[in-house]
Amino acid sequence: MLGKRAQVSIDLLVSYGIAILVITIALYTVLQLGVFNSRLAPEYCNATPSFSCDGVALTDNGVLTIIFSQTTGGVMSITGAACSGTQNSINGGPAFGNVNVLPESTAPSYYPANQLQSAIVAYSGSGTRVTVYCYSGSGVAKGNIGNSFTGTVWINYTLTELPNTLHTVQQLATFTEKYASSAVQPTTTSTSITTTSSTSTSTSTTSSIVPTYPGSFSAEFIHENAITINTAKVPASQLAFPVLISGTYPFLANTANGGDVQSGINGYDIVFANDIYGYNALYWQVESYNGATGAANIWVNTPVSSTASTVIYMFYGNSIINSFQSNPAMVWNGNYLGVYHFSSNAGALSAADSTSHGATGTITGTTATSSGIIDGAGAYTGDGTFIVIPSASINTALESPAWSVSEWFYMNSGGQGQVFGAVPYWSIVGLGLGNNVGSCGTAFWVVMDEEQCVTSTTAPSTGAWHYMTLTYNNLNSNLNVLYMDGTPVASTSFNWYGAAPSQPSMVYATSGNTASFGQGISGNIDELEISNAALSANWIQTEYNNQYSPSTFYSISYIS
């Protein structure tokens, strides 16, 4: 009997021992994968109504990073933040540090490495990261690793739906968090990278901007580069601007071709943030990526400044990542109703809409060409070749009190034909943009209802790319302004606002031969954008500067 009991005991010990070993291995694996990454798991964080606290990190040099979501239904532009260990007993605001929650432009010392840049956009239902210094009575609240700090966070914001002068200072959350190490990967000597160029808010709820692997990108990715925007190319500071990163970069080739990107042909492990630690992920869209050469066309949504250098950070080299890490539609936030890159994938032309509206165009006769201003483009032979954009995009724009249409075009010899057209209201012509057509003269023109024209003094040259933009503003004397290559060339007053469509609207991303549009261009069309806002002259000039010459719009330096 004793022998049997001993055997049973041994069997039980072996069974439990195996179970404990399996559990231990499983826990170790989970921890290694970062599932229980505690870097942003606070000891305590309590958010005020309409906000949620999703994560907190505090480093020993007093730098706080808080991830939060807001559910106001609006879009916030956060221009200031503050963190204080004590509240002011009189007004409930911060007692130390940025006591008035001043914007970064006024109080840059309150933000590590100018982390807020111009502003941070917080969409309803989406995660947002803000990084500030915490203060106590003795200055920046530095501490020993492992000790705890209790404080309160405030933000200063405006709502895009209201005038930008209406600032609100709001207590965001109270928290208790332990200090962690501020050490980052060692940096190497900064080396300039020579680029080779290839020649705005949605209020819908979207997925969180928090990356798949929480915490600092710098702890997850092998390499990091700084991208510095050239202030001379930004006439005026812009919020939430889609910057084009375009060129051939050997380090962005995949590892099989001598580069540092580890996600094969897709470039999934190329990610962007607006701080050097990679806490505050940006939105980006990959228009094209070639893993063999490192050629890339990537749009990154970020504020850009005309007075202080805007720096965004690109992280790459992570073998674990096997899916795209951002939300491309959020690059085109704001008032964009349709954005068409006309990219070519394996020689096939795409008329996909990059915004959240998903208004894909219908291609007739138009083919792809690899010689676009940005990646590929649509090639047109004249009448009978066109792309029809769904009616909703242009109707929504032209029924708005303000709107804009932008497009790159390249005319072959002859230089005659329409490059854009819409039939939203009348049975004849609603809106046409073209060159040397009809009764509007021999220069570039806009025809509006029965051929009322706004005409530039000079025609665009053939055999070259040009950037055309037309804006309309009902609130500014019904002013229509025509821009060519970023510069206003003509204007007139004409009232589009308030007329109901008399027939289904059709937009031609190059005018084809139809009942209403009979003179199509022979040439190429690229990057059509439709917006229900009158873009400013400075915005349009910045777009032109960035898209025409990306290599002079920014510089890249190696960090690690």
Q: What does this 3D model show about the protein?
A:
With about 550 residues, the protein is mostly beta strands. The chain has 3 domains: about 45-180, Immunoglobulin-like (Sandwich), CATH 2.60.40; about 190-335, no CATH class; about 335-535, Jelly Rolls. Helix content is about 10%, strand content about 40%. It is built from 4 helices and 34 strands. The protein has helices at about 1-35, 390-400, 535-550, 550-555; strands at about 45, 50-60, 65-70, 75-85, 120-125, 125-135, 140, 150-160, 170-180, 190-195, 225-230, 240-250, 270-275, 285-290, 295-305, 310-315, 335-340, 345, 350, 360-365, 365-370, 375-380, 385-390, 400-410, 415-420, 430-435, 445-450, 450-455, 465-475, 480-485, 485-495, 505-510, 520-530, 555-560. The longest helix is centred in the N-terminal third of the chain and has 32 residues, at about 1-35. It is globular, with a radius of gyration of 27 Å.
Give the biggest beta sheet: 8 strands, antiparallel
What's the mean pLDDT score? 75
Low-confidence stretches: 26-42, 184-216, 424-430, 499-507, 510-518
Termini separation? 68 Å
> What's the CATH topology name of the largest domain?
Jelly Rolls
Give the C-alpha Rg: 27 Å
Derived structural class: mainly beta
List the SSEs and their pairings.
Layout: H1 2-33, E1 44-47, E2 51-59, E3 63-70, E4 75-84, E5 120-123, E6 127-136, E7 139-140, E8 148-159, E9 168-180, E10 192-193, E11 223-229, E12 238-248, E13 270-273, E14 283-290, E15 295-304, E16 311-316, E17 336-340, E18 344-345, E19 348-349, E20 362-364, E21 367-369, E22 377-381, E23 386-389, H2 391-398, E24 402-411, E25 417-422, E26 431-435, E27 444-448, E28 452-455, E29 465-473, E30 479-484, E31 487-493, E32 507-508, E33 522-531, H3 537-548, H4 550-553, E34 554-558
